[in-house]
UniProtKB/TrEMBL annotation:
Transmembrane segments: none annotated. Pfam families: Lactamase_B. Residues 22-239 form the Metallo-beta-lactamase domain. SMART domains: Lactamase_B (SM00849). SUPFAM superfamilies: Metallo-hydrolase/oxidoreductase (SSF56281). InterPro entries: Metallo-B-lactamas, RibonucZ/Hydroxyglut_hydro, Sec-metab_biosynth-thioest. The lineage of its organism: Bacteria, Bacillati, Bacillota, Clostridia, Lachnospirales. Gene3D superfamilies: Ribonuclease Z/Hydroxyacylglutathione hydrolase-like. This is MBL fold metallo-hydrolase.
Length: 334
């Protein structure tokens, strides 16, 4: 653990599995109450590291608040344990629109799982082996993540403020990665906690399969704001290292999405017919049409989400059209 700014402490949890991004835990220590930005996965190892950080700082959990940037299990997994010790949690209530979020859609319940598999073109009738495999894997993943049935929190909305340790943070909407993700901006100290909206190394997923939300467009607009309106900030992401050049990272992410859009558009033009989200994703990323093993199934759902987001974005820009038949969505180049 190290103090990166006065009263702001950072502990990073690394993982041996290269598919799991390291988690940055932040605590702003105050004289009365302290603030933790997100938690981590609900595992014994993560809990021991997180609780050790709190104890080393001499913080009483009854005087600890948690700001939840977004409701993914690697950010909320340990919230209930801290609440059981007396901590309070704050989150934007828009983030509870679980239907919008792909991860929750696949893990929430069997009906949502079947519906979302059908949207991308995976059905019991047409692709039984893939369908059965994903139903099995998502059930297994839900159980292993130990996700609480319903997270309790105190609603906090964009524009409201939280003050701790000499800092006064404004809640800022960072829509894109999820529907209601928020960050914390300190205008005087020029600091910003950005959740999963911005990070080095990888391109964050816009994780939705719901139509007409324009989530990738929202994400790109948000990134543009980070690059221009908040360009002089010290950015603190929840994964990977500090962001030293915000323009470089924003451009890398946006170009990454636009490049994939161009490839997907070419896939549709070459096909000359309407394709499902899964078909486009397979051809774009070079994956097999068959079911993956358990270690890689999550990357398939991420590919579907990224493909779906790109399709919605290109439809909004007038490059492709969308149709629906029996709950399956099809895309075709114009």
């Amino acid at each position: 653990m190290r103090e990166i700014k006065k009263n702001i402490f950072l502990e990073t949890i690394p993982y041996e599995n290269r598919h799991i991004s390291p988690r940055n835990l932040y605590i702003i220590r105050g004289e009365d109450r302290s603030l933790m930005v997100d938690t981590s996965n609900n595992t014994e190892r993560d809990w021991n590291i997180l609780k050790g950080m709190i104890d080393a700082l001499g913080i009483d959990c009854k005087k600890l608040d948690i700001f939840i940037t977004h409701e993914h299990p690697d950010h909320t997994g340990l919230v209930p344990k801290l609440q059981a010790l007396g901590a309070r949690a704050f989150m934007n209530p828009d983030e509870t629109r679980k239907r919008v979020d792909l991860l929750h859609s696949y893990l929430a319940d069997e009906h949502a799982r079947i519906e979302n598999l059908r949207i991308v073109g995976v059905t019991k009738e047409e692709t039984p082996e893939v369908f059965d495999t994903f139903m099995e894997y998502t059930t297994k993943a839900y159980q292993s993540m130990k996700i609480p049935p319903e997270l309790s929190f105190i609603p906090i909305r964009p524009g409201e403020t939280l003050s701790y340790g000499g800092y006064c943070f404004e809640v800022v909407l960072l829509k894109g990665h999820t529907f209601g993700q928020c960050g914390l901006y300190e205008p005087q100290k020029k600091l910003m906690f950005v959740g999963d909206q911005l990070m080095t190394t990888i391109v964050p997923i816009v994780g939705t399969q719901e139509t007409d939300l324009g989530m990738l467009k929202c994400y790109m607009n948000s990134l543009g704001e980070l690059k221009h309106k908040y360009k002089d900030c010290y950015f603190l992401p929840c994964h990977y290292g500090e962001i030293k050049d915000v323009e470089k990272e924003v451009n890398r992410i946006i170009y990454g999405y636009l490049e994939k859009c161009e490839i997907m558009k070419h896939v549709l033009e070459e096909a000359g017919t309407a394709l499902t989200t899964r078909d486009i994703g397979v051809r774009t990323y070079g994956r097999s049409q068959g079911p993956p093993d358990y270690a890689h199934f999550a990357s398939c759902t991420q590919i579907w989400a990224k493909t779906f987001s790109c399709m919605e974005y290109m439809m909004g820009e007038g490059f492709i059209e969308r149709s629906e038949r029996d709950g399956i969505i099809y895309w075709k180049a114009l």
